[in-house]
Specification:
This protein is an alpha+beta fold. Helices cover 45% and strands 28% of the residues. The strands form three sheets. It has a three-stranded antiparallel beta sheet. A two-stranded parallel ribbon has the order 1-7. Helix 6 runs antiparallel to helix 8. The radius of gyration is 21 Å and the shape is elongated.
Length: 218
Protein backbone atom coordinates (compact mmCIF):
# COMPACT_ATOMS: atom_id res chain seq x y z
CA UNK A 1 0.00 0.00 0.00
CA UNK A 2 1.31 3.41 -0.95
CA UNK A 3 1.04 6.40 1.38
CA UNK A 4 -1.54 9.13 0.76
CA UNK A 5 1.28 11.42 -0.37
CA UNK A 6 2.47 8.97 -3.02
CA UNK A 7 -1.09 8.24 -4.17
CA UNK A 8 -1.70 11.97 -4.58
CA UNK A 9 1.48 12.33 -6.62
CA UNK A 10 0.59 9.37 -8.84
CA UNK A 11 -2.90 10.71 -9.51
CA UNK A 12 -1.68 14.20 -10.40
CA UNK A 13 -1.90 15.22 -14.08
CA UNK A 14 1.11 15.12 -16.37
CA UNK A 15 2.86 18.44 -16.98
CA UNK A 16 2.74 19.07 -20.75
CA UNK A 17 6.19 20.65 -20.71
CA UNK A 18 7.65 17.14 -20.26
CA UNK A 19 5.77 15.65 -23.23
CA UNK A 20 7.75 15.15 -26.44
CA UNK A 21 6.51 14.39 -29.94
CA UNK A 22 7.90 12.21 -32.68
CA UNK A 23 6.72 11.16 -36.12
CA UNK A 24 6.90 7.56 -37.26
CA UNK A 25 5.46 6.10 -40.43
CA UNK A 26 3.47 9.29 -40.99
CA UNK A 27 1.89 9.23 -37.50
CA UNK A 28 2.62 11.48 -34.52
CA UNK A 29 3.29 10.00 -31.09
CA UNK A 30 3.54 11.63 -27.67
CA UNK A 31 5.98 10.31 -25.10
CA UNK A 32 8.07 11.17 -22.06
CA UNK A 33 11.83 10.70 -22.07
CA UNK A 34 13.60 8.05 -20.05
CA UNK A 35 15.43 10.50 -17.81
CA UNK A 36 12.12 12.07 -16.83
CA UNK A 37 10.65 8.70 -15.82
CA UNK A 38 13.64 8.11 -13.55
CA UNK A 39 13.45 11.63 -12.13
CA UNK A 40 9.75 11.14 -11.37
CA UNK A 41 10.44 7.80 -9.69
CA UNK A 42 13.05 9.46 -7.47
CA UNK A 43 10.68 12.33 -6.72
CA UNK A 44 7.62 10.23 -5.91
CA UNK A 45 9.06 7.03 -4.43
CA UNK A 46 12.38 8.34 -3.10
CA UNK A 47 15.90 7.69 -4.30
CA UNK A 48 16.08 4.42 -2.36
CA UNK A 49 12.40 3.56 -2.71
CA UNK A 50 12.50 1.70 -6.02
CA UNK A 51 14.74 -0.29 -8.31
CA UNK A 52 14.65 -1.89 -11.71
CA UNK A 53 16.13 -5.01 -13.24
CA UNK A 54 16.37 -6.43 -16.73
CA UNK A 55 14.80 -9.88 -16.56
CA UNK A 56 14.92 -10.87 -20.23
CA UNK A 57 16.89 -9.64 -23.22
CA UNK A 58 16.89 -11.06 -26.73
CA UNK A 59 18.66 -10.05 -29.91
CA UNK A 60 16.11 -10.50 -32.70
CA UNK A 61 18.14 -9.12 -35.57
CA UNK A 62 21.78 -8.60 -36.55
CA UNK A 63 22.40 -7.85 -40.18
CA UNK A 64 24.78 -5.91 -42.36
CA UNK A 65 23.46 -2.95 -44.33
CA UNK A 66 24.48 0.32 -45.87
CA UNK A 67 24.39 3.24 -43.43
CA UNK A 68 24.89 6.98 -43.66
CA UNK A 69 24.70 9.29 -46.62
CA UNK A 70 27.89 7.86 -48.03
CA UNK A 71 26.52 4.32 -47.98
CA UNK A 72 29.17 2.87 -45.68
CA UNK A 73 29.08 -0.77 -44.63
CA UNK A 74 27.46 -1.07 -41.25
CA UNK A 75 25.30 -3.09 -38.91
CA UNK A 76 21.62 -3.06 -38.02
CA UNK A 77 20.76 -4.62 -34.66
CA UNK A 78 17.43 -5.02 -32.84
CA UNK A 79 16.63 -6.20 -29.30
CA UNK A 80 13.51 -7.01 -27.30
CA UNK A 81 13.83 -6.50 -23.54
CA UNK A 82 11.67 -7.05 -20.47
CA UNK A 83 12.37 -4.76 -17.51
CA UNK A 84 10.92 -5.13 -14.02
CA UNK A 85 10.29 -2.13 -11.76
CA UNK A 86 9.91 -2.87 -8.05
CA UNK A 87 8.50 -0.39 -5.53
CA UNK A 88 8.17 -2.03 -2.13
CA UNK A 89 5.99 -5.07 -2.72
CA UNK A 90 4.56 -3.72 -6.01
CA UNK A 91 6.07 -5.27 -9.13
CA UNK A 92 5.45 -4.07 -12.68
CA UNK A 93 6.96 -5.43 -15.92
CA UNK A 94 7.32 -3.72 -19.27
CA UNK A 95 8.37 -4.93 -22.71
CA UNK A 96 10.34 -2.71 -25.05
CA UNK A 97 12.33 -2.78 -28.26
CA UNK A 98 15.44 -1.01 -29.42
CA UNK A 99 17.34 -0.61 -32.65
CA UNK A 100 20.94 0.29 -33.33
CA UNK A 101 22.77 1.35 -36.50
CA UNK A 102 26.54 1.73 -36.55
CA UNK A 103 29.62 0.93 -38.59
CA UNK A 104 30.87 -0.93 -35.52
CA UNK A 105 28.84 -4.03 -34.69
CA UNK A 106 29.50 -3.76 -30.95
CA UNK A 107 28.34 -0.15 -30.81
CA UNK A 108 25.18 -1.06 -32.74
CA UNK A 109 24.42 -3.71 -30.09
CA UNK A 110 25.09 -1.25 -27.26
CA UNK A 111 22.79 1.37 -28.76
CA UNK A 112 19.99 -1.13 -29.36
CA UNK A 113 20.19 -2.54 -25.82
CA UNK A 114 20.08 0.91 -24.20
CA UNK A 115 17.09 1.96 -26.29
CA UNK A 116 15.22 -1.29 -25.57
CA UNK A 117 15.85 -1.11 -21.81
CA UNK A 118 14.68 2.50 -21.66
CA UNK A 119 11.56 1.70 -23.67
CA UNK A 120 10.72 -1.28 -21.44
CA UNK A 121 11.36 0.70 -18.25
CA UNK A 122 9.01 3.49 -19.35
CA UNK A 123 6.29 0.96 -20.16
CA UNK A 124 6.63 -0.57 -16.69
CA UNK A 125 6.53 2.84 -14.98
CA UNK A 126 3.56 3.92 -17.11
CA UNK A 127 1.29 1.55 -15.18
CA UNK A 128 1.83 3.57 -11.98
CA UNK A 129 0.01 6.67 -13.19
CA UNK A 130 -0.19 9.90 -15.15
CA UNK A 131 3.23 11.36 -14.21
CA UNK A 132 4.86 8.39 -15.92
CA UNK A 133 2.98 8.82 -19.19
CA UNK A 134 -0.27 6.93 -18.55
CA UNK A 135 -2.14 10.15 -19.41
CA UNK A 136 -0.76 9.94 -22.95
CA UNK A 137 -2.70 6.74 -23.64
CA UNK A 138 -5.90 8.78 -23.52
CA UNK A 139 -6.33 10.10 -27.06
CA UNK A 140 -7.84 13.32 -25.71
CA UNK A 141 -5.01 13.69 -23.15
CA UNK A 142 -7.43 15.05 -20.55
CA UNK A 143 -4.90 14.50 -17.76
CA UNK A 144 -2.12 16.38 -19.55
CA UNK A 145 -2.12 20.02 -18.46
CA UNK A 146 -0.18 23.22 -18.71
CA UNK A 147 1.51 23.54 -15.33
CA UNK A 148 0.55 27.15 -14.68
CA UNK A 149 -3.12 26.48 -15.50
CA UNK A 150 -3.31 23.60 -13.07
CA UNK A 151 -1.64 25.64 -10.34
CA UNK A 152 -4.05 28.54 -10.73
CA UNK A 153 -7.03 26.25 -10.20
CA UNK A 154 -5.99 25.05 -6.74
CA UNK A 155 -8.23 26.74 -4.17
CA UNK A 156 -8.66 24.09 -1.45
CA UNK A 157 -6.22 22.25 0.80
CA UNK A 158 -6.48 18.88 -0.96
CA UNK A 159 -5.89 20.41 -4.38
CA UNK A 160 -2.99 22.47 -3.07
CA UNK A 161 -1.34 19.38 -1.64
CA UNK A 162 -1.72 17.61 -5.00
CA UNK A 163 -0.20 20.62 -6.72
CA UNK A 164 2.75 20.65 -4.32
CA UNK A 165 3.41 16.97 -5.01
CA UNK A 166 3.31 17.58 -8.77
CA UNK A 167 6.13 20.15 -8.64
CA UNK A 168 9.36 19.25 -10.40
CA UNK A 169 11.84 21.60 -8.69
CA UNK A 170 12.24 23.33 -5.34
CA UNK A 171 12.49 26.67 -7.13
CA UNK A 172 9.13 26.18 -8.85
CA UNK A 173 7.59 25.10 -5.54
CA UNK A 174 8.78 28.19 -3.70
CA UNK A 175 7.56 30.44 -6.51
CA UNK A 176 4.15 28.78 -6.42
CA UNK A 177 3.95 29.14 -2.62
CA UNK A 178 4.58 32.87 -2.82
CA UNK A 179 2.16 33.39 -5.71
CA UNK A 180 -0.74 31.61 -3.95
CA UNK A 181 -0.60 33.54 -0.65
CA UNK A 182 -3.72 35.56 -1.49
CA UNK A 183 -5.53 32.47 -2.79
CA UNK A 184 -4.85 30.62 0.47
CA UNK A 185 -6.09 33.54 2.54
CA UNK A 186 -9.26 33.94 0.46
CA UNK A 187 -9.91 30.20 0.85
CA UNK A 188 -9.52 30.33 4.62
CA UNK A 189 -6.24 28.39 4.54
CA UNK A 190 -4.45 30.56 7.08
CA UNK A 191 -2.11 29.96 10.00
CA UNK A 192 -3.85 28.33 12.94
CA UNK A 193 -6.21 26.21 10.83
CA UNK A 194 -5.84 22.43 10.30
CA UNK A 195 -5.94 22.98 6.51
CA UNK A 196 -3.00 25.36 6.63
CA UNK A 197 -1.04 22.95 8.82
CA UNK A 198 -1.57 20.11 6.32
CA UNK A 199 -0.60 22.24 3.33
CA UNK A 200 2.39 23.87 5.02
CA UNK A 201 3.78 20.59 6.37
CA UNK A 202 3.57 19.08 2.88
CA UNK A 203 5.19 22.19 1.38
CA UNK A 204 8.14 22.04 3.80
CA UNK A 205 8.68 18.26 3.65
CA UNK A 206 8.37 18.01 -0.12
CA UNK A 207 10.48 21.14 -0.63
CA UNK A 208 13.32 19.52 1.33
CA UNK A 209 12.97 16.38 -0.78
CA UNK A 210 13.14 18.32 -4.04
CA UNK A 211 16.09 20.40 -2.82
CA UNK A 212 17.98 17.23 -1.87
CA UNK A 213 17.32 15.76 -5.31
CA UNK A 214 18.53 18.89 -7.06
CA UNK A 215 21.69 18.81 -4.96
CA UNK A 216 22.37 15.19 -5.86
CA UNK A 217 21.60 15.62 -9.55
CA UNK A 218 23.23 19.03 -9.84
Amino acid sequence: MFSAQINNALSAPLDRSFVKERTQAGRSFSYIEGWHAIAEANRIFGFDGWHRETVDIRCVNESQRKIGRDGREGWSVSYIVRVRVIVGDVIRDGMGSGHGLDANCGLAHESAIKEAETDAMKRAFMTFGNPFGLALYDKEQRQVVEAHVEHEQTTDATSMIKTILSMQTATALRKWWRSTKTTRENSGIVEGTPEYADVYETFVAYGKKLAAGESING
